[in-house]
């Protein structure tokens, strides 16, 4: 099995595994921490994640400059790129410690309006630990980027899967012992250190990674800065879109509303991983096509459609299933006090489906150095999101904030970016959407039967959710396989089935 297939399969294995673990771990965590402390943890984690913006988009630029350096100067060029990126991120890590220290010293001023003195002290400790974690992660990101550039997805995904398993195994006993949210971030930091150290050892011993630190190329640095600037703007906008809601709620509504929103947002993050599990392994291939082909648009459109179709089928299985049993699942999972998280999750999941089936387009834009327009669109999206979410958050709490985010996503990603892909990037979006919509009829029968069952049967608890979800998933899969997939996709599915059968027969 090649590295791409292994990476995709392990990514989905990690997603499935993390979901199963969450069924056991997250409800216990919510009850042990309580809404107040969980809300504080969610608020601080979202706030401190803003420090990741200090990478200024350079992390996403690595792949493009790695590919170009390898094509022009071979391993010597790659070593020079590695040294430059490591030096830059080392400086950024030091700066993030400085900025984070200022934030920690002023945490009482930031959240004094809605947090109690005890919550503020907890927030101070959490913030200090998370600042250190982000500062260390900056220079270490060069090693994970190098592994991706070398397309060693098996190692990368396996490390992530191990971390997924260890996280609740270590955290749960600490929570049961009464250590609270502080133990959560300490374990997060320790696992990050172990992961980064493993990546460093793998790069040095298995991949022969080299770094050259002499003759710092400032002309190349200026070119990197120009390329990365608009990626940096995108990072700001993404951060605003996905963290502004918790910040607004923390200020205007307090920790309870933030905790409810945090549950809906966590389910939304699981939804995101379904798409990124596939698209992440194609980044090196996209950069190679753009760098080596004279007329790459046809190949890129074919890849865009092929990956988008698979993402759409998987996402719709999850989205329609959650639509039917999401509320009873959340009540069983987190408790009835988190029931509003169902609406919040849906408001975040539905509009984000469009960019998720098109997220290969982000890498295509970057590979072509045509990502500037997206940054401008996302600036407008962020401004609209903030302007809408503040009054909606005051009036309707977490649901109002999620609605503001949904509106901005539908306009920016659903309309404007599709127009840009068609008119400027060179992707055939008419063919893309025709291919995507051709799958929809195969989903109508299972969706109609699912709605009929849901309207006439009361579903409660994990048992009720599973009794609905398993037959529904089987019917959905069979219907899409028979009536929605093309011959290439069916061959891909049967190839995987045959490999499993051959392994069992040995």
Shape, per Cα inertia axes: globular
Rounded radius of gyration (Å) = 23 Å
Mean pLDDT equals: 81
How many separate helices? Answer: 18
Regions with little confidence, pLDDT below 50 for 5+ residues: none
Structurally, how many domains make up the residues? Answer: 2
Summarize the main sheet: none
Helix content: over 70%
Q: What gap, in angstroms, lies between the N and C termini? A: 17 Å
Structure summary, number of beta strands: 0
- Classify the secondary structure makeup into a structural class: mainly alpha
Q: What percent strand?
A: under 5%
What this model shows, in words?
- It is a single chain.
- This protein has 506 residues and is mainly alpha-helical.
- 86% of the residues lie in helices and 0% in strands.
- The chain contains 18 helices and no strands.
- Helix 2 (58-105) runs antiparallel to helix 4.
- The longest helix has 48 residues, at 58-105.
- The model has no long low-confidence stretch (mean pLDDT 81).
List keywords for this structure.
506 residues, mainly alpha, 2 domains
Write a short abstract of this structure.
The protein has 506 residues and is mostly helical. Helix content is 86%, strand content 0%. The chain has two domains: 1-216, no CATH class; 246-506, no CATH class.
Topology readout:
Elements: H1 3-48, H2 58-105, H3 107-111, H4 117-149, H5 153-176, H6 180-205, H7 218-252, H8 255-279, H9 283-292, H10 297-334, H11 341-357, H12 360-367, H13 372-396, H14 398-425, H15 429-437, H16 441-456, H17 461-483, H18 487-505
Helix pairs in contact: 1-4, 1-5, 1-7, 1-8, 2-4, 2-7, 2-9, 4-6, 5-6, 7-8, 7-13, 7-14, 8-10, 8-11, 9-12, 10-11, 10-15, 10-16, 10-17, 11-14, 13-14, 16-17
């Amino acid at each position: 099995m090649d590295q791409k297939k292994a990476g995709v399969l392990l990514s989905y294995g990690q997603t499935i595994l993390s979901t199963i673990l969450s069924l056991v771990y997250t409800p216990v965590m919510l009850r042990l921490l309580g809404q107040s402390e969980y809300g504080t943890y969610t608020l601080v984690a979202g706030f401190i994640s803003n420090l990741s913006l200090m990478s200024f988009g350079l992390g996403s630029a690595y792949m493009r400059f790695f590919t170009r350096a390898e094509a022009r100067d071979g391993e010597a060029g790659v070593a020079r790129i590695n040294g430059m990126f490591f030096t830059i991120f080392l400086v950024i890590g030091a700066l993030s410690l400085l900025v984070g220290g200022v934030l920690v010293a002023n945490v009482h001023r930031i959240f004094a309006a809605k947090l109690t003195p005890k919550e503020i002290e907890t927030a101070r400790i959490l913030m200090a630990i998370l600042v250190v974690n982000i500062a260390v992660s900056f220079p270490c990101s060069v090693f994970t980027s190098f592994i991706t550039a070398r397309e060693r997805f098996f190692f990368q995904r396996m490390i992530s899967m191990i971390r997924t398993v260890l996280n609740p195994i270590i955290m749960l006993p600490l929570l049961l012992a009464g250590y609270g949210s502080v133990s959560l971030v300490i374990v997060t930091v320790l696992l990050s250190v172990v992961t980064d150290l493993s990546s460093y050892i793998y790069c040095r011993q298995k991949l022969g990674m080299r770094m050259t630190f002499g003759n710092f190329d400032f002309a190349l640095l200026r070119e990197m800065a120009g390329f990365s600037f608009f990626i940096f703007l995108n990072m700001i906008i993404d951060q605003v879109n996905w963290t502004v809601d918790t910040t607004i709620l923390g200020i205007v509504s307090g920790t309870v509303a933030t905790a409810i929103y945090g549950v809906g947002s966590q389910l939304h993050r699981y939804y995101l991983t379904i798409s990124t599990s596939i698209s992440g392994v194609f980044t090196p291939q996209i950069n190679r096509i753009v760098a080596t082909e004279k007329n790459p648009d046809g190949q890129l459109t074919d890849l865009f459609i092929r990956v988008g179709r698979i993402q759409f089928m998987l996402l719709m299985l999850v989205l329609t299933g959650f639509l039917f049993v999401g509320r009873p699942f959340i009540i069983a999972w987190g408790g009835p006090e988190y029931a509003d998280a169902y609406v919040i999750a849906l408001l975040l999941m539905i509009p984000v489906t469009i960019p998720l089936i098109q997220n290969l387009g982000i890498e295509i834009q970057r590979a072509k150095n045509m990502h500037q327009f997206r940054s401008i669109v996302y600036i407008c999206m962020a401004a609209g999101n903030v302007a809408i979410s503040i009054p909606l958050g005051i009036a309707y709490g977490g649901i109002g904030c999620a609605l503001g985010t949904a509106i901005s996503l539908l306009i920016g990603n659903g309309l404007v970016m599709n127009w840009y892909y068609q008119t400027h990037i060179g992707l055939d979006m008419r063919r893309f959407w025709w291919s995507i919509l051709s799958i929809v009829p195969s989903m109508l029968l299972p969706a109609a039967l699912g709605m009929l069952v849901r309207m006439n049967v009361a579903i409660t608890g994990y048992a009720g959710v599973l009794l609905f979800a398993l037959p529904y998933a089987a019917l959905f899969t069979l219907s899409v396989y028979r009536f929605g997939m093309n011959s290439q996709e069916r061959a891909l599915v049967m190839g995987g089935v045959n490999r499993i059968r051959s392994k069992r027969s040995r």
